[in-house]
Design goal:
The structure holds two protein chains of two kinds. By secondary structure, chain A is mainly alpha-helical. Chain A has 25 helices and no strands. Chain A is 72% helix and 0% strand. Chain B is 36% helix and 25% strand. The chains are: A mainly alpha, B alpha/beta. At the A-B interface, helix 12, helix 16 and helix 20 of A face strand 1, strand 4, helix 2 and helix 3 of B.
Chain lengths: 600, 251
Amino acid sequence: MAVALTTVTMLTMARMKVAMLRHAFHGTRAQTAGTGAALGALLAAGTIYLAFIGPDPLAAGYAVWLLGWILGPIFMGGGDETLRPEYFSLLGLSPRRMAAGLLVSAFVGVAPLVSLTALLGLLVAGVRLGVVNTLVAAPAMVLQLAVFVLLSKVSVALVGLALRTRPGAIASGVLNGAILAALGQVWVFFVVFGQTGVPAAVWYLPSGWGLLAVRGQWWALAALAFLVLLLLGAWAALLGLRTGAARLSTRGRRPMRPATANGAIVAKELRTWSRDLVRNHQLTFALSYGVCFAASPLILGWDGMLPYAGLIFIVMAAAMTSNLYGTDGTALWLTLMTPNASDVRGRQLAWLSAHAPVAVVLTVAFTAVTGGPWPLILALLPALLGGAAGLVPLVSVYGLVPGTDPHRRAGNPLRTSEDDGGLTGLAYLMLALVLLTGVPAGLVALRFGWAGVAAGVVTGALCYWGFGLLAEGRLRSQGPELLNVMRTGRKPQTTMASRFEHLSTTQKTIAGLCFGFGAIPLVPQGIIAAVFVANDTVRHSWFLATYMPPGLRYPVAAAFVVLGLAMYGTGLWFVTPRSSRQRGRPSPGEPVRAGCRCRP
Amino acid sequence: MTPALEISGLTKRFGDKLAADAIDLSVPQGSFFGLVGQNGAGKTTTLSMAVGMLRPDGGSARIFGEDVWSAPGRAKAMVGVLPDGLAMPERLTGREVLTYLGLLRGLDKDVVARRAGELLAVLELDSAEKTLVVEYSTGMRKKIGLATALLHAPRLLVLDEPFEAVDPVSAATIKTILRGFVAGGGSIVLSSHVMALVEQLCDRVAVIDKGTVAAAGTLDEVRGASSLEETFVALVGEQDNGVKELSWLSR
């Protein structure tokens, strides 16, 4: 009876999830999911290929999948929460049955399907060994997938629990940052252990047990099954803890002292930074990542990376805050209703006040320890700080991922939005863009030494000012649309592509040329050519700037960068909806739909 | 006299659904205006467009003659808004929210401090001095929302469902405040689906149904000889209005 009931619960929950996913995958989210699935399929194909190379690489491959399942959701959005335990809290299900139902529903989705495809490598390994091994591969695949999914759920639940208290949030931030940094610097540990190739440890991680079983160590199959039961029990227990409400705060509050609108925004933001435990977690994560990443080569006695700790912290912290406006949810209405105050500038100042002191202290202290290279480091510091403080509001209003309003969030504190794919994409975009803002100052510093510092201050200030201005303009012209995205949780269906359809043939051609070829002057002829010039590489293949007389090399590369940016700007100008360029209300009888230039 | 709020031809389409179909309304100065309608009739959409929080597909909205879209600074300074269910700066206490918004509105620091103290005391939020807004109950959220709408002493209040989830004692307080506001020359637009409340408070009513104005005028013009509830059901109810019973609920 109990088994039958559990089966019914499991199937019902799985059907519910299928229905919810069908409704959720529309518009941009479908695109994100499609891109994710395509990337995942590529990774899965690569993993299956490893099975043909040999067992060691395959075991290492599965270790990477395991880490992806555990760490991925912690960094971005708290993992798959289509079905939440809270939905079922009134049904009186036993924790174990609920966990079993949620587990089965957790298998429905893109990520599990992709992982199962990757686990086909076990089947390949089995077929290459014999009939019995092939037969063992099937249950091994299912159990291995269950271990992936369950370890992911348990680790998210544990971090969620830690995020209910400040010490927990800080501790888990430090720990997660250290783990991710260690993964990024895994070569250091290889060198330390004198290891070449794949470390033996990958065989003994739970990710290797499936492969062990297929290779004839039958105990591993039993161990996998046992681990699944153990994790299921742990998850069921954690689900019970999750529904408890967070404690109310009773601490005394320091009074708000500023006397100006800008000061008020800074004070509000800084209070949010210190009181929101998710932001505490993100900040300590970025800090721990920067320090551990830069310090790990010290194990080898090499301190050359140490001065970059503060800079890595800036880049990581910017990525963590890439959805600044989205995480505040519909509170944007207050910004719309007070059009005379400048929300963006206040937030920029607050971002700097929260991050710059830490970054400056880290950078100066660590560079003093190693004794240099001062010009490069001091050039990058202001460039990246200004770049990040400019890009954070800009990216968050242009790439806004609708967040869940803080007072409506469910039991998982990591879950700030329903679109975790979008959040991840935005974070990576931010990483890349912030790094780019450091390139000019870095190049100048490498070539001319201390002049780089001036370049860094100038580009940093320009980014801060210019990107902030762009963000402000976007907020002013598209504020109501952004609020509507936040309210409904869905981006408008009309995309760039459909706007493109409304252009005339000439406009289409120009926009197409701009988008299609803008990258050529910008990247190879501009940025890359400048790198060659900086390295004194002359007359190099087709990079025009390297053929110029010495005085003209940088100007030519810079001109190409400007040309490339201008081409993208022109293309964007054509496809930008008219409402964002022409402020003011639409006149009656001239309907303006979001994202449509209704021109005859 | 310029109307406190004048909306003409406001239209909004969400996908296939016409949420507001050329809505015209005029709220005279000094009136207490009730907007009634079923769930999903278009009340929130209309009010959001009227105050500049949602861009209409067509039509215009003027607050004391100032266009909400072409002169947002002047128009929005004269209105206090209480939206339904939107977020606030959640990690601030009630007093901090008021301080923050007052400064944002360009008020003097001391004025903000004085008004915030009074508002918190009148709305009985001063006992929750250390509580962050994210930890507030639904009723408390309504009250702090009302406080933010009143803070800059606007001449027009636009309130979306101001009494939902508010306990009877607080509701009585809020009613007193709102009546005093109108008596002092202010104008109020509120939306509700509680007919008794609208009948009790408002002198003018508009009935919104399926994105259009089904009836508008003074309370007596709209309800005639019957109650507002009867008039409302007659206006918006389906033709076949036999209420069905749930057979499986009775033993």
